[in-house]
From TrEMBL:
Keywords: Signal. Residues 1-32 form the signal peptide. This is Peptidase M10 metallopeptidase domain-containing protein. It comes from the Bacteria.
Length: 273
């Protein structure tokens, strides 16, 4: 039973609902891949969900849309995992794993593609040029599944950048695993997989009436693609309006684009084309 389902309606309004992301960097065992001497490393970024008893600051309570928006374009904060792509990230979706409750599979894939495009181009809410020119492309369907285990660990890489839905334990929403060569600093990313929890009713494509304890698929996956390209987390308490925050409110579509810090951090690493 996920923690988020235990909430009391009244208490829910008194709390800031958080989607908690725990980021853990794992140095994997040396593995051969083409260059036998190069150790392969794995980074795991888990996006967990649940309610945290964050006490809202009265009398304002929850972050208003207006306040959210203004700080989103004023906060230049960001962190970098260390590794990045030198070539195009071509990724595929395992459509058969898309849960039925999300409806039309094409709409789901379009949502995932939109999230990837946001990070690729630097689509943002702040009027900044959308020309980051990071190279990624959606390459169609695959039968491969993300190399992510149900407990949120990283499995085997298989040479395919797969996005799939599946079971995730411990209230995890989505997990991104990255494999790279070289040192963590300036490493060369070679694979990124994203596993999205397929629990019924967890996500929405557009905010449902009377929304509660559901998350925006697009915003969540924008965050995950941010990880795939190399962005790390910023703390919710100080940077809760940025897309790479480690806490995201439920029922909000405010995280579909990039905030200032998300954008600037990507731009610093990938530049513009
Ligand atoms: Zn995260």
């Amino acid at each position: 039973m996920p923690k988020i389902d235990s909430g009391l309606a009244a208490a829910r309004r008194a709390l800031i609902p958080l989607l908690v992301c725990a980021l853990a960097l794992v140095t994997g065992p040396a593995t051969s891949f083409r260059d036998a001497a190069a150790p392969l490393h794995v980074a795991r970024s888990a996006t967990a969900r649940g309610w945290l008893p964050v006490i809202p600051a009265p009398p304002t309570g929850e972050i208003t849309e207006a306040a959210q928006e203004s700080s989103r374009c004023a906060d230049p904060s960001g962190t970098w995992l260390g590794m990045r792509w030198r070539n195009e990230l071509r990724w595929r979706v395992n459509e058969r794993t898309i849960p039925a409750y999300l409806g039309d599979r094409t709409a789901v894939v379009d949502t995932l593609r939109s999230a990837a495009t946001t990070v690729d181009t630097g689509r943002n809410d702040c009027g900044l040029p959308e020309n980051l020119g990071i190279q990624e492309s959606y390459a169609g369907k695959t039968d491969h599944r993300a190399g992510v285990t149900a407990d949120g660990g990283c499995g085997e890489r298989d040479g395919h950048n797969a996005v799939s839905f599946g079971r995730l334990n411990q209230g995890l929403l989505a997990v991104t695993c990255i494999w790279w060569y070289g040192g963590k600093e300036n490493g060369r990313s070679v694979e990124a997989d994203i596993l999205i929890d397929d629990t019924e009713g967890l996500f929405f494509l557009s905010v449902p009436p009377g929304c509660g304890s559901r998350w925006d698929l697009e915003g969540t996956i924008t965050h995950e693609f941010g990880h795939a390209f190399g962005l790390g987390h910023v703390a919710f308490a100080e940077h809760g309006s940025l897309t790479m925050t480690d806490g995201l409110p439920d029922c909000s579509t405010a995280y579909r684009g990039l905030g200032l810090g998300d954008y600037l951090t990507l731009k610093q690493q990938y530049g513009t084309n």
